[in-house]
Amino acid sequence: MSQEEEIPFTSVGEEGMLKLNEVAQVAIEDTQILLVNAEGQYYAIQDLCTHDDAPLGQGRVVGCEIECARHGAKFDVTDGSATALPAFRPIATFPVRIKDGVIEVQYKKPEPPKFEDPRIGFQPFPSA
Ligand code: FES
Predict the structure, then answer these.
(1) Which residue out of 45, 71, 75, 91 has the highest number of ligand 1 atoms within 8 Å of its CB and is therefore the one to mutate?
(2) For 6-36, how does the pLDDT look when each residue is reduced to its tens digit (9 = 90+)?
């Protein structure tokens, strides 16, 4: 059994709870994540803009992107990639499935962010 299969799915709501381009904050364990209906599919993403650690829940969804309400960074909800500045680091995404009319998310606590210098790529935080 792979590590992905060992992570349980958690029920977060009923199928149909979100209209197209709607976003809902849902709690899994002690963490708030976002459930997004983008292009008719549900996606689960981290509720954290990587530009300035702001929540993304007030963001606007257009196509497969969510736009941060603060400074306009955009993220692809399908893979978490940053698609518009000022953010350049990705957000975490989580697998979603519909089972018997219930939306389930396979949540795994995201890895701590790494410092990324866009000129040289990912780097670990410098040690003291
Ligand atoms: S905090 Fe999201 S774009 Fe600045």
Answers:
(1) 71
(2) 899 999 999 999 999 999 999 998 889 999 9
What digits encode the pLDDT tens for the residues 35-75?
Answer: 999 999 999 999 999 999 999 999 999 999 999 999 999 99
Q: Read off the CATH number of the domain in which 10 is found.
A: 2.102.10.10
Contact residues of ligand 1, CB 6 A cut-off: 49, 51-52, 54, 68, 70-73, 86-87
| Residue 90 in domain | yes
Long-range contact set of residues 59-66: C-beta below 8 Å, sequence gap at least 24: 59/23, 60/21, 61/21, 61/22, 61/23, 61/36, 61/37, 62/21, 63/38, 63/39, 64/38, 64/39, 65/38, 66/23, 66/34, 66/36, 66/38
